[in-house]
Specification:
The complex is a heterodimer of chains A (305) and B (507).
Chain A (H helix, E strand, L loop, with lengths): L1 H28 L3 H5 L6 H10 L6 H13 L13 H36 L4 H15 L2 H15 L12 H30 L2 H8 L4 H29 L3 H7 L4 H10 L3 H29 L1 H5 L1
Chain B lengths: L2 H18 L10 E6 L15 H5 L8 E3 L6 E3 L2 E8 L2 E6 L13 H11 L7 H6 L6 E6 L2 E5 L7 H4 L25 E2 L9 E5 L12 E6 L3 H9 L5 E2 L13 E14 L8 H9 L3 H8 L5 E2 L22 H13 L8 E6 L6 H14 L4 E6 L1 H8 L11 E7 L6 H8 L11 H12 L2 H19 L2 E13 L3 E2 L16 E2 L4
Parallel strand pairs in B: 1-10, 1-11, 14-15, 14-16
Antiparallel strand pairs in B: 2-3, 4-5, 5-7, 6-7, 8-9, 9-10, 11-17, 12-16, 12-17, 13-17, 18-19
Helix pairs in contact in B: 7-9, 12-13, 13-14
Classes of the chains: A mainly alpha (305), B alpha+beta (507).
């Protein structure tokens, strides 16, 4: 297990370096920040002055060399837009995204596991059909639509929830709902199909034949064995959220990393883009380690292998 | 610790963090919330000619003069009077007994420092790049409340430029931008965590009349529908930049000309080098149908690139009529003269430029196709589009029309004319000796003569050069809560004085 983690760490460091190179050059392919930050009418002389001040007049390889040297000292540079250290901006935004993702994944998993398991108990039954329909809809409806309709219904018509912002726990209800609907739909489908396989296993038939209660059969025996594919898909969904819950953050004015990244891309704020990508990459690396740990927890073959 | 306890602890920490994440609540009846689509990352007053001006200009930091929104003329603010003592020198008398919100004294020294700070090349100062790129101001202190500002060339527009000279406290960092500007205005920014909402609090020792609004909180929401909803449910009092489709309540949604004008600029290449083709492309556009179908009646059909309140606007100019038959006749005439009128003409549009901009381009393309022109839409992202807009142009410059939008809220035609229509202008596509002469003469003139010369230049350009397909003077919508009395005007897109906002029933 220890050598496995060592290997994963080395792989991740190599991947991170590849990412650094890729993000640096790809970001610069998308446009010149001098053009994007300054008004369209800005005279050429002012553009040149701005470029020189920020080192954009230097050859790309020189810029990259400087960036690497700074990076070795954990200096990601400063935001072009407001002059703050890029890493500070990212670390300030990241906890909001993590919290949003945490609640959304927790609720998704609980609903998906309960619903998928019950649906798998009698495939083709009324509950299964309703659960499949709702979960398919949840996995398919675009979340920006859910967000806007949610505001209209719950804030404007019913006046039950705040439209946006982060003042109270009530402010979290709609963003978390927007975030969990899709993974919940996907995970319900995965739990259902995985549980159908598990429930058809000989050990489940034996348990049923011995008269073990349905609840114990489902949640006590079959579920644990059905969880491996669920953990894989849940990890994938969580990585997507950590990457930036862009829609929820943008619509509801949550100051998370997705929104920060989109804003930075729009303004070609390279230092912030690079810092945000690096921090999310590290977070996903940690998430993958946690998923591996979950595998080990669920499957003794992994633990002792 | 058991797995369940661990999970419980994790949930507890997350719950605690969720509850702790909060921003200020609005409970003061004289406090308002303004919801905007802008980021306001850097609200240094040196950027006050951009959207930053909405927050800081005349609220936190005041300028020497103030432009009247109706007339476009400068009025006293921190300067009480001004006179041109020499062709290149203006003497300015400053208001006395004024202090900054940090207690510092407002005087000639503070003005000189603010001017020097704006020209400090260590700062990414938008005002310097946008307004003072070709003008160097040199301050000279005469006495405590008198200052001379000199320029290398005569500068008849100095009183207008003074409306952008915002004066910061002498304690402001000279070599770094600040996120909490300090000025002499009726409001101060008590504290600010970058990235959070911006709060302006009324300051007690303001030299002028105390405003009714005691506190203003600026929050950002990207979605227009959400901004509109926030005002509707009472979470905000003013919603800026409400999209046309969301401005559905005539009681609360106020449209105003925002100083922006849209056009399509001709590159003078291929068939577009021929004035008959350029005229035909103007005659082929049914601007009224375009306005009524895609925009609305609040939008004004433009004849020139700035609004009537700007010095140099020519009220005699009429919009191009919609005359597809004459357009066809001109194209035939050009064809017979050997012009390749069948060549493909790309229409370069900018993605997400303004509301319904893309639809407008598609409708115009259909109109040009109806008169037999071979036009094709080429939408571009901003960075790609910018490469075509500014000189130096890549050679060879192809035939094309470029979608543009230009704002002039600065009071004078010079901020538009030289840049676009003079042969040396950074966004000019042609050289016309007579037009150059008129613009140069207007730039050097002042008063009525200046206005007259710019009017002549505008008329000459439209008649003899036809450099563009003029579209509309654009409109912004602002949703205003019914508890407020406030009417947006022509400068509300770049400056919104909180002191102008009143509460209903208090007067």
């Amino acid at each position: 297990m220890r050598s496995y983690f060592r290997q994963r760490t080395i792989q991740s460091v190599i991947s991170l370096f590849g990412l650094v190179v890729l993000v640096f050059f790809l970001a610069r392919l998308t446009g010149n920040p001098v053009d994007l930050l300054l008004p369209v009418d800005t005279p050429q002389s002012v553009r040149e002055e701005f470029a020189a001040r920020h080192g954009f007049d230097q050859p790309l390889l020189v810029q990259f060399g400087r960036y690497l040297l700074d990076l070795l000292q954990l200096d990601f540079g400063e935001s072009l837009r407001d002059g703050r250290p890029a890493l500070q901006m990212v670390l300030q935004a990241f906890p909001t995204t993590l919290l949003l993702s945490f609640w959304a994944m927790l609720i998704s998993l609980v609903i998906a596991i309960v619903t998928g398991s019950i649906a798998a108990w009698r495939p083709g039954g009324v509950f299964d059909r309703i659960a499949s329909l709702i979960s398919l809809a949840g996995a398919s409806i675009p979340n920006f639509w859910i967000a806007i309709v949610g505001v209209l219904v719950f804030s404007v018509w019913l006046r039950a929830l705040p439209t946006s912002g982060t003042g109270t726990p009530w402010h979290w209800i709609m963003p978390v709902t927007v975030l969990f609907v899709r993974p919940c739909g996907v995970l319900t489908q995965v739990v259902r199909s995985s549980m159908i396989d598990a429930l058809a296993s000989p050990y489940v038939k034996t348990a049923r034949a011995r008269g073990v209660r349905s609840r114990v059969v489902i949640f006590g025996h079959a579920l644990r064995n059905a969880m491996l594919p669920v953990v894989t898909v849940a990890g994938d969904q969580a990585a997507g959220m950590v990457n930036g819950a862009v829609i929820a953050e943008t619509v509801f004015g949550f100051p998370g990393i997705g929104k920060l990244m989109i804003d930075s891309i729009m303004f070609r704020d390279f230092a912030v883009i690079q810092a945000a990508v690096m921090v999310t990459a590290v977070a996903i690396f940690v998430l993958n380690i946690l998923i591996d740990l979950a595998y080990a927890l669920l499957d003794p073959r992994v633990r002792h292998g | 610790m058991s797995k369940f306890r661990m999970a419980g602890l994790l949930c507890g920490v997350a719950l605690g963090s969720t509850v702790a994440t909060g921003v200020l609540a609005q409970d003061d009846a004289s406090a308002i919330t303004i919801v905007t689509p802008y980021t306001f990352d850097n609200i240094d007053s040196c950027n006050s000619s951009s959207e930053v001006g909405l927050v800081v200009r005349e609220n936190v930091v005041e300028a020497l003069t103030h432009l009247n929104a109706e007339t476009g003329q400068p009025e006293p603010r921190l300067a009480t009077s001004w006179e041109q003592t020499e062709p290149t020198v203006w003497r300015i008398k400053l208001r006395e007994s004024v202090t900054f919100s940090d207690g510092s004294t407002f005087d000639a020294e503070a003005v000189a420092r603010s001017i020097d700070r704006m020209f400090n090349t260590k700062l990414d100062c938008l005002n310097r790049g946008k307004l003072f790129a070709n003008i160097r101001l040199t301050p000279k202190i005469i006495d405590g409340h008198t200052i001379d500002i000199s320029t290398e060339k005569p500068q008849p527009l100095m009183p207008i430029f003074m409306s952008f000279l915002t004066i910061e406290s002498p304690k402001t960092d000279f070599d770094a931008m600040t996120s909490t500007p300090v000025g002499t205005g009726p409001y101060a920014i008590p504290q600010r965590n970058a990235g959070d909402a911006i709060v302006l609090a009324r300051q007690d020792h303001y030299w002028g009349e105390a405003p009714e609004v005691s506190k203003a909180t600026y929050v950002r929401r990207d979605e227009s529908a959400l901004r509109a909803a926030m005002v509707e449910v009472g979470e905000a009092d003013i919603g800026l930049n409400i999209a046309i489709q969301d401005a559905t309540n005539p009681e609360t949604d106020h449209g105003y000309l925002n100083g922006e004008t849209t056009r399509l600029r001709f590159s003078f290449a291929g068939p577009l080098a021929d004035i008959r083709v350029r005229k035909a492309m103007n005659l082929a556009i049914d601007r009224e149908a375009l306005r009524d179908g895609l925009f609305n009646q609040d939008y004004a059909i433009a004849t020139q690139m700035f609004l009537p309140r700007i010095n140099g606007y020519n009220p005699e100019m009429k919009p191009w009529p919609y005359d597809p038959e004459q357009a066809k006749a001109l194209i035939d005439e050009a064809r017979k003269a050997g012009v390749d009128v069948d060549a493909e003409i790309p229409i370069i549009s900018r993605i997400n430029f303004y509301a319904n901009g893309q639809e407008a381009m598609e409708a115009m393309i259909a109109m040009w196709q109806m008169v037999g022109l071979n036009v094709k839409l080429q939408p571009m992202e901003r960075a790609q589009w910018l490469k075509l807009v500014n000189k130096p142009y890549a050679e060879p410059r192809p035939a094309m029309l470029i979608q543009e939008q230009h704002d002039n809220n600065s009071g004078d035609a010079t901020f538009t004319m030289h840049f676009r229509y003079h042969s040396t202008g950074q966004q000019s596509e042609f050289g016309d000796a007579e037009l150059d002469r008129l613009i140069d003469a207007a730039d050097a003139a002042s008063g009525d003569e200046r206005v007259k010369l710019f009017q002549q230049a505008n008329a000459y350009s439209a008649e003899h050069v036809v450099p563009d397909v003029m579209m509309f003077h654009m409109v912004n919508y602002m949703r205003i809560s019914d508890r407020l009395e406030f009417k947006p005007d022509g400068v509300s897109s770049t400056m919104m004085e909180l002191s102008q906002i009143k509460f209903r029933g208090t007067n």
